[in-house]
Each structure stands twice: as C-alpha cells, then as structure tokens.
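Assemble and predict.
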Amino acid sequence: MRNLITFIIRYHFFLLFLLLEVFSFILIANSTYYQRASILNTSNHITGAVYSAFDNVTDYLSLRKTNYILSEENARLRKATRLSFLLADTNSFYVNDTIYKLRYTYIAAKVIHNSVNKRNNYIMLNKGRKQGIDKDMAVITSNGIVGTVVSVSDNFCWVMSVLNKHTKISGRIKKNNQMGTIIWEGKDFTTGTLSDIPAHVKIAKGDTIVTSGFSHIFPAGIFVGNILDFRVEQGDHFYVIPFRFSVDFNNLDYVYIVKNLMKDEEVKLENSIQDE
Amino acid sequence: MKNILRFLVLVILQVFLLNKINFLGFLNPYIYILFILLLPFETPGWLLLLLGFVTGLVVDMFANTPGLNASATVFLAAMRPVVINLVGKKPDYDVGGQPSMRDMGFKWFFPYAFLLVLIHHFVLNIIDVFSFYELWQTLMRVIFSSIFTLVFIFLAQYMFSKNKERG
C-alpha cells in the first residue's frame, strides 16, 4: 500500500496527464456524430445566451444584405401564389383542396454561431424545443441546403453543417434524376463533392444538383449546387464530382428549419419492414 | 490575479473573434494557449495540467467540440516542462518570473513559443480529423494556423512589454 502511494506521488504528473487525456477522449468519443453536444446541452443555455447577446450587436452590420435576400425571396414567393396566375383554360376541373395534405412546414431561425474553417463545422440557431424544433430536422436557406439539427435545448439548437465529415445527404442530378451522395471533403467551404454516380451516365459542367428527398429529413428538389468538374478515378466505376454550393456558408444569417409532418408515419412504415 | 484576467481576455478573444476568422477557409488561430505558455515557472505540474484542461474545456463549450481543445491543451501543458528543459532555463531568472518575452528575451521565447504552438496545433488538428488519410491537408492547416497564432502571440507580447517600460 505504501509502495502504491509512493508510486502515485512520484508519477503524479504523468498519471494526472493520462487521466485528463483519457477523460478528454471519452468526451470526444461520446460526442462525435449525432450525440455531439448532447453532453453540453445544459451548457447550451449559457453559450446560447452569450452568443445571442453578441449577435444582437453584429446583426446590424448585415441588415442591408439580409433585406435584399428577403425581398428577393418575397418576390419569388409572390410569383408562385395563385393570385399571380391567370386562368387561361375555363374548362379546368375543380380540384378538391383536401387532396393536398400539408407535409412540410418551415420555421424561420437566425444563425447565432457559425464556422466554416474546421473539418467538422456546426451552426447554432436561436430556435429550440419550445419553438417545436426537434432532432433530425433539415435546415435550408432560400437558395439551398445548410445542414441537419443534431441537438436541441429549450431555446437553441445545434445544426451539423453540410461542411462536416459526417455529412451524407442523398442528392440527384436534376437533368437525368441520377442519384448520388453529397459529402464534403474539407478542402474549401465553397465546394462539395457528389459521389456514387455511375460512370456511364452523361453529365456536364454546370448541371444542377438537388436533394432527392429519399430521406425523412430533406424535402425533394432543394437546390444544392452546380457541377464544377467531374472525373472517374482509375479502376473505379463511379464519378467524383466536385460542385459549387449554392449557399455561401460564410455568410449565413437567416435560415429555415424544415419540419416533416409525416416523418413519424414514414419511419414507422420503414421500421415495420425491417422488423420482419 | 493577473493570470485570471489574462485567462478571461484570451478566452473571450478566442471565442468571439478568432474562432470567426475564416481566412482562406482553413485558418483558425488558437491564441488562448498563450495563457498556458505564460504561467509562472514555479507553477506545479498538476496545476498546469488542470488549468490546461479547464481552459480547453471552456473553449470547447463555445465551439461545440467537447474534449477536442481540452485534450490538445492538456497535451500542451504536459509538454511545457519538456520544452522549457529543451530550450534551457536561464540560471538567473527572477523568482516569480514568467516564461514571457519580457522576462526571458526574444531569443529564448521564440523557440519556446514556436515549439509549443506547433505541438498544440498538430495534436488538435489530428484529433479533429481523426485520420491520417487527409494528412497533407491537415499539415497545411497546422502550419498556417501556427503562423497566425505565433503572429498574434508576438503582437500581444510586444504590446505588453512596451506597456511595462512606460508604466
């Protein structure tokens, strides 16, 4: 026993070092991917409050640009309302509105913390559980995808940005409906990569990539980006397609959180198949 | 007391300013480690490690990376005595002296800060990426962020040593 105590005293520096490192690694291991930040959920209250206070100041600096983006979107939405369509065919039949069932609702939120320069980037928004935000909701802007909600506290949520090692979003090339996987290789926050498109498919620079909607998270047809280049690695049968994100991640301000009202039903159906 | 103030200033600077620098998309200087670098020579080892851990964890809380900065900063704190031995202690340093530019001079402080910053940034980035697959890219991050951090550290040191002479 005395030997043990002498040992501990003699090597206390090294032992403490090991202890702290092990503890840090446990924190890291427990927090990677989706569980990330759930440990710090309680501290979200504090950091969230501090960030919003700071954001109140910086908010004014981007007002002009934000206004411009909002008005542009307003114009686009106005174009899409029924009032702006002229009824050309008087023989059109009556459409019962109950055919359309609301599937997605959108909740506007403000970015209060964001980064683009790490390998794994996260965004904090000023909406949380009290505003109906839940894990696995999609986050988009008026011109493209932004990320997925990974952790929620009462008034804030953390979003795993598309600029993250763990991002895997199902996307498709709009022109020919070919489906692939959207990932981020970490080099540059303006450029993502589309993989898993078979090499026999004809594609061209500038082709549009949109979300496929084959997950319960992102609605179909949300703009992702335009193809910059494409190549086939030697001995591979799939393209590697770098593309330019339609969203400027360095300049995020207001975003929409997408709530899929039928997600429960979809997940239940899917699970019932897996069970058998 | 001075150290507590320095801790607060550095962490606030780190969280609100430096974590938001996005120059070239991969630059992220970590100036908060200056707090660990400047702790007095007499700081016992266990306190060094604990302070490193706490500092890292606070920065982690704001960056949503639990454990990442903590592990790198603990490693930094553990390497500090080694690097001090490596660079060589001056025999005539004052009691209560700090390993700073003012007390030790540029010639001593430069290799000291350079080595420790490089070690910290390397560990931090390797743990963040957690693979050697993108090694070249990771090294670029390490090198450029280190240069940035060093520039900040020397600017801060220069300013503080000037103040002392005047005051």
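The first strand of chain A starts at residue 104 and ends at 113.
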